[in-house]
Amino acid sequence: MSENCFHCGQSIVKERIAFDGKEFCCAGCKSVYEILNLNDLGDFYELNRQSGIRPDESQNSQFDYLDTAEIFDRITDFSEGDTTIVNFKIPVIHCSSCIWLLESLHTLNKNIKYSQVNFTRKTVQISFNANALPLSELAKFLTNLGYKPVITLESAERKEEKYDRSLILKLAVAGFAFGNGMFFSYPEYAEQIMGTTDFWMEKYKHLFRFITFSLATPVVFYSASGYFKSAWYGLKNKVVNIDVPIVLGIIMLYGRSIYEILTDYGPGYFDTLCGLLFFMLLGKLFQQRTYGALSYDRDYKSFYPIAVTKVDFNGQHENILLSELEIGHRILVRNQEIIPVDAILISGEGNIDNSFITGESASVPKKPGDKIFAGGKQVGSALELEVIKTVNQSYLTQLWNKEAFKKHETGLDTLTNKISKYFTFIILGITLIAGIYWAQVDFEKMFQVVAAILIIACPCALALSAPFTFGHVMRILGRNKFYVKDTLTIEKLAKTTSLVFDKTGTITFSNKANIALEGAELEEFDLKNIKTLLNNSNHPLSKALYDFLPANDDHFPVTNFIETAGKGYEADVRGRHYRIGSAKLVGVKSKNLETAVYISKNDQLLAKYVFKNEYRPNLAHLFTKLKTYAVHILSGDNSSEEKSLAEIIPNAAGMAFNQSPEDKLMYIQALQNRGEKVAMVGDGLNDAGALKQSDVGIAVADDTHAFTPSSDVIMAGVKLPALHDYLNFTKDAMTIVKITFGISFFYNIIGLSFAVTGHMSPLFAAIIMPISSISVVAFTSASTWWRSLKYFRLKTD
């Protein structure tokens, strides 16, 4: 018998449904299989075995608000007649079979005309007939297939993507000039190599030289403008960065070339200059490649819904934009929906999950009249709330916008810039000494020697080594579910001395718990009754306990059901009176630092189930490997898990519990004030301040498309036990960069020895310089790949 669902590939744990000779884990997967087969799309499973996606069975699939005229216009790109076009963000797109299925939607629904997937951005564009298929029904249709669209306030704003088009244009200009410059320079190169004089070359050489000058000028003043700005910015901040010697080399090549063609001394080096800038810009483009499917700088708007259900005093419901909410409005919040504003509970039994705000994993009960903060999630029945603050004034928004939660990077303290500072002064010193010497010996040759020194010493290989190395490292780490924001982060990871871990949702699973029964095993009669009663509650602990108890198909009538807010509930089942909930409800004393569900029968304690966090596997092995780091644990929960944590991390440098977001931030600051380089590993909004304050913020997400705070790294939760390998790989990357620096210096030392003594012409220097750059790029590509095999043997190709 199969252990995995035929559609989604997940392990079949509770429910097993047999259909058409196959096994499914739920009715949703079985339904999708039926839909695909009925429409002759069974090839979906041949494209990628176990590639299906389990349909979302939660109740939070309400999309009726999409049919409201104002919201419809905000969401759709085009709507005229029977044609409407919409772009949906669908984060769960992950393989070729997903693309194939989503682009076959027109075969599943006759009202869909076409659909096109953008895999990188995780979006699908759909053209459909909105008159026959409302937008809300289209969203539900996708959800039932397992591809639930994510519709948030941020996605509705349709911000332009941060894409550096100017760099592409600069690269194109340099490439065009490089290719054509080589073409027009070829006759002179051929003449110098063959030693013969061509009549036509002599007649038109001035024209050809003017053309190469015209091609190189926009490259210098447009394509290379970023290097000039960077050098100027560095000098303004009293830092001599890597771009300063590069700019000197560019000016020398350009100036020397103009001098040669004006004096008819030679053809100049315009083609070489264009080639060097082309390859350097290519390296910069490679460096700036990012993971478009992820967002590292999300704000609170990616967390909020685009619309809410407003309730008037007559009980009528109206879908309105979140931005239109005013103080005094009443709104309806359903099960699993985010509360978008600070509000007062008017009716309903609140059960608020504040884990994104406080880090506390336990839900907080609320009764009518209680205040509820924005960012909480309702778990249970629908609530009616009265707005007391608009979305821009809510606690969640204020927390996100705090200045302490924002840090600014200059990027001027990298290893490359530190080396280039000394490199530049040394080269300028050598050039000055050589210039003074040759001015006395041979004034004409002095210009040739100075030009050769600055050309051969141009740190192009030095500038290329880090971008290409870190570019390869980012690509390899990304393939292994460790997504780094930029190259500066790799350097910071390699320098880390302290690791700070959030507990809830980071080293523990966010949605799992270990449940243990304290006392004697229950009889089958009571188990069935309790299971029946648990099925009548939406409380997360009740749901978890319902899943934990043995499965049974017997459900009995429940009478005299009474729920006490914040304590639990009681009812009669088959002639027995049961109470399920807190110790106070069943009339016993409890331990302060534990989460437990007590069950009594006929006023006698029957059972006690203790809930403990479930830790991710192999953590003890991970923390053993991390012994070279100072490891700290922070948690918004109480200290009930301190003993368990001490067993997993026997050498922890510090643990702190009941930590608010501000407390976590201050803890990081205290470590940094002691000179520590801190990497914070956390999740959720409650860690946003600490992640920003730390030198490197690593956001752990069990679904990397789900909400994560601003961070430098997004890491898949399943990969947390491999954190030590990721950190070691960044250290190896720094070693490779240092070796490439050594290779670059070797070329410079050899070249300078010839240039200073007057045995190297500027032409030969211009030819040998790109060769050194190519060899450095080849070395860093090969060595990075080779070192990655040590850590990610199966994931590097």
UniProtKB/TrEMBL annotation:
It is a multi-pass membrane protein. Residues 310-400 form the P-type ATPase A domain. Its main location: membrane. The keyword GTP-binding does not apply. InterPro entries: ATPase-cat-bd, ATPase_P-typ_cyto_dom_N, ATPase_P-typ_P_site, ATPase_P-typ_TM_dom_sf, ATPase_P-typ_transduc_dom_A_sf, ATPase_P-type_domA, HAD-like_sf, HAD_sf. Residues 4-74 form the Putative metal-binding domain. It is found in: Cell membrane. Pfam families: ATPase-cat_bd, E1-E2_ATPase, Hydrolase. It comes from the Bacteria. Keywords: Cell membrane, Ion transport, Magnesium, Membrane, Metal-binding, Phosphoprotein, Translocase, Transmembrane, Transmembrane helix, Transport. The keyword Metal-binding applies. The chain crosses the membrane at residues 167-186, 206-228, 240-259, 265-286, 422-440, 446-470, 736-757, 763-786. Belongs to the cation transport ATPase (P-type) (TC 3.A.3) family. Type IB subfamily. This is Heavy metal translocating P-type ATPase metal-binding domain-containing protein. It comes from Kaistella pullorum.
